[in-house]
Amino acid sequence: MQTPTTSGRFRWRIVALLFLATTINYVDRQVLSFTMTDELFRKEMLDMTPDSVLTKEATDRFKIFYGDVDAAFKFAYAIGFLLVGWLIDRIGTKRGFSLGIFVWSIAAVMTTFVGNMTSLRWARVFLGLGEAANFPSSVKTVAEWFPRRERSFANGLFNAGTNVGIILTALLVPHLILQFGWRSSFLVTGLLGFGLLIFWWFMYHKPERSPQLSADELAYIRSDKEKMAPVNVSWGQLLGYKQTWAFAIGKFMADPIWWFYMSWLPDFFNSNDALDQKLDLKTFGVPFLIIYVVSDAGSIFFGWLSTQLMGRGWSANRARKTTMLICALCVVPIFFAAQTSSLTIAIALISLATAAHQGWAANMYTFASDLFPRNVVASVTGIGGMFGAVGGILLSLLAGRIITAFGYLPMFMIASCAYLLALVIIHLVLPKLEPVTTEELEKSGNWSLASDQ
Predict the structure, then answer these.
(1) Contact 377, 143 (CB under 8 A)
(2) Which of 201, 219, 372, 445 is the most interior residue, by most CB within 10 Å?
(3) pTM of the predicted model, to two decimals?
(4) pLDDT of residue 17
């Protein structure tokens, strides 16, 4: 059998392409969380004049509206996950992801022209529909381009783009807002997606059709000898497998916490009176750089750790769940971030928790490719993403109201225990990570020719 050192490394360029796509995806979705701290933006969204006084009551009303807008984004994201996952498994990763990039880039640019919370809500709905394409496409691409033992590391690498996207947003968007106004932040970042679309269309091919992939590396990629056949299996049929439910539960419990960080951390640092130092558009950059560089390290390290444990002879079940347990334990102390007066301690605790989440996510994404054949991975990822978005919707609808009434402590307490509870339920549902075979899908599915590029 070929080894990674003799088989070639072109597949890692594909991970770099997915990393770039994930980075831009997160830049476009993250812009709003920083823009919402701008006073002029809040006034315009509340139909107030620029010289009006932004009272505490108005600020609280804005936060509740913002939570509702965030929930609308996640509702569209949930629907998009189901539709896009199904679509990608049928028209192919290249065309399906291209469509998603086009939709989210149009929506991102159109946000430049919103004038109130209603129009902002609709812009975020279309953004959610398009952005849902990123993870089903990326996870399916990793399943197509990597043997099973390398997938958690590859997933960890492309998933690190989420943190780089947030870092770039924290460094770029405040500068744009301060220099050119809040509308420029949506316009400039939205245009990035169109460059990505061109790059993806001309760079991506399936391994068998890639002119730059050697025969040795293709043989290494296919070394699992996974039996494949084009299959059309409905969502209802996939939900009949406990493997789907294990993946969906992990997403439902953990994804809302990550989205809470993305949506509310700028406001936490900007409005938390308990902190000895508050952050604003001029000072967000370095703290967010620290938080999400550490998060990147967590994504890569915990993806690598699972791969290393399997390389030492651990089963996928033991390696994945042990790594996820470590991640879950690292999140527990975060509740203290809402109680400390030290900005430094708050940043450290949040950095640890976000790094652990990214490690959890990198291993969760391997569930879809570990437990199902490659040609239904996007559909399974879409179902899991939909459950994650539903959890995000519920938390978003509550977040603004909880924060205005009780502060941030209840939200951080939810975060501290969510992962441990999720892991317990996953283990009860699926004590062993036993994959669904192609033969099982053949019995439950309707077989037809699937197209891919």
Answers:
(1) yes
(2) 372
(3) 0.76
(4) 93
Which residues of the chain are under the pLDDT cut of 70? 1-7, 224-233, 442-453
pLDDT on residue 434: 83
pLDDT score recorded for residue 227: 56
The structure tokens 């946000």 sit at 111
The residue behind tokens 């709003």 is 32
In angstroms, the CA 187 to CA 194 distance is 12
